[in-house]
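Following up on my earlier thread - several people asked me to post the actual chain instead of describing it. Fair enough. Here it is, all 100 residues.
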Amino acid sequence: MYYQLGTWLKGRIVVGGDSGTVYRLPAEGEDEDSDPEVAASLGQFVAMLQNYVLGRCLLPMASSRTEREDIRDEIENMLTAIDEDGGASQAWTYTLYDNY
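Reply from S.P.:
Thanks for posting it. Predicted structure:
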């Protein structure tokens, strides 16, 4: 049983009722084998989301390409420090490289 939290990149974000693991279920037409796990627990997901949003807010303020790359690297490092497997999910990294 899953409990839906919302949507992200057109896929649903859900919490596994038995395990507490947070997943991003693929959107229609998307590869079913993409990295579905985004966090091992709801607490880790919230911590990762807070760091992710803060880092994303810093990206437009970066004054150079090098600074943007450093911010992206820091975001990725924070995510994997909180949850190594979930932090490596494409759901987090895909949007880091969409507009910058």
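The helical segments are 42-58, 65-82, 84-87, 90-93. That should answer part of your original question.
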